[in-house]
């Protein structure tokens, strides 16, 4: 854009900003309609010109000031911010999509640290939710109730223990902007539980969020499989294109077993690390399989089967043994609790892996891990031993999140429970287990009351089983509570929140045999029963 034109554009943009109320008053929707359909041609022309100026001048100013790439990103961000302000659930969908598809994407700006897409999505979502809570604004009821469904108190206690450990750990480490940012991301990820149980209030909301999770997870799995089957050079070129958003580039984006290029390639999608991708697939594959087996799935079963197949294929291509064991545990629980046919499916998949020639290396790799013969497993055993030493020295509140105080120890272990023990001590680990213990207690106590063969049943079962599978996978990895992977922690607590919402919806159901009061027909559902109609809800 020429310099003079740029200055003129900026001046016009400022004028329109100063005269914004007057412009909007004269260009109301009714006025625009009358102008567009006026019988005089010059009136129609002036209306179209006014619309172009109002819409085009600010856009041109942003593009002229920031350039095509950054200006477009800014406009998309402004549009997303407007949608989140108008419809808060859109913000939750944005968080889910970022977690699944661009978990490490960051803005190409430096403000002391580089804000990520996840940072912006979480901060925007919390800002809107807290603002609506404070102003008591709710489209349906005119008020916003703060919900504290169990295990809210345990989650808040866990957050407070994390803050105590963080502050205590500063006595032997230096605080940095990057450390504060990562710790803040972890806290927001845990507190996502509170946001979910307060925003997802109806069965329709729960259905929609579950569908978004399945679709976003399928997108991540499809990208992972697609990049895996491409030639290596093309895969490197495509993944390196994300370097503008802070992603790594070059041949290092390709991940191999034991980092040996002579061994099979591992699928990473846009998750950088194959184990982290495997953890994501535990959640979304469990949700999808639960819907496949449901009597009333949320979308057509054929689509769900196709998506589940892609997710399972991508899970296998990650060669993540911990993720495979975690998903197998979730599937086993699903078979025990509700669908026995799942056990047969798991057996068939295992037999195929044992018998098919292309899967022989996968079986060998898995067997070596179980026997502790490969290098990665032996390194894990060493980490476990060092972690126990560190925990024994600082057993109560751990060493914090910055680093170990002793020169002969280090902070980091491929086990989420030992990692929490290192960072927050046995007290913090106890708080974490307390949260999950209350969560699963509520689930198992409520399960007998869940109506069978209904849509609510699959929505109720999916998240807790996915959490259980992730906890099994956490025995072999640390991404569920790692400062470097806040999106994985956010997905974990989001799923805990969805499971809590499912429990609350089931508990809200009244027994179908309850006596119906005379004259209470106005309060009954259309079917005539005393059951509340939880499938209908205000528009998102």
3D structure, described in words:
By secondary structure, the protein is mostly helical. It has two domains: 1-66, no CATH class; 152-227 and 255-508, no CATH class. Helices cover 66% and strands 1% of the residues. It has 20 helices and two strands. Strands 1-2 form a two-stranded antiparallel sheet. A hairpin with an 8-residue loop joins strand 1 (255-256) and strand 2 (265-266).
Quick description:
The protein has 540 residues and is mainly alpha-helical.
Topology, pairings included?
Layout: H1 3-18, H2 20-26, H3 29-36, H4 41-66, H5 68-86, H6 88-101, H7 117-134, H8 152-169, H9 177-199, H10 203-229, H11 232-240, E1 255-256, E2 265-266, H12 274-293, H13 301-317, H14 321-337, H15 341-355, H16 360-371, H17 375-393, H18 416-446, H19 455-473, H20 486-508
Helix pairs in contact: 1-4, 4-5, 5-6, 6-7, 6-10, 6-20, 7-9, 8-9, 8-18, 9-20, 10-12, 10-13, 12-13, 12-14, 12-19, 12-20, 14-15, 14-19, 17-18, 18-20, 19-20
Residue fraction in strands:
under 5%
Instruction: From the alpha carbons, calculate the radius of gyration and give it in angstroms.
Output: 26 Å
Q: Label the structural class.
A: mainly alpha
Order of helices and strands: HHHHHHHHHHHEEHHHHHHHHH
H/I helix tally = 20
Question: What strand line-up does the widest sheet have?
Answer: 1-2
Domain count, please report it: 2
Oligomer classification? single chain
Helical content band: 55-70%
- Which segments are poorly predicted (pLDDT under 50) over 5 or more consecutive residues? 1-10, 14-21, 23-27, 512-540
First CA to last CA: what distance?
A: 41 Å
**Number of beta strands:** 2
What does the largest sheet look like? 2 strands, antiparallel
Integer average pLDDT = 81
Globular, elongated, flat, extended or rod-shaped: what is the shape?
Answer: globular
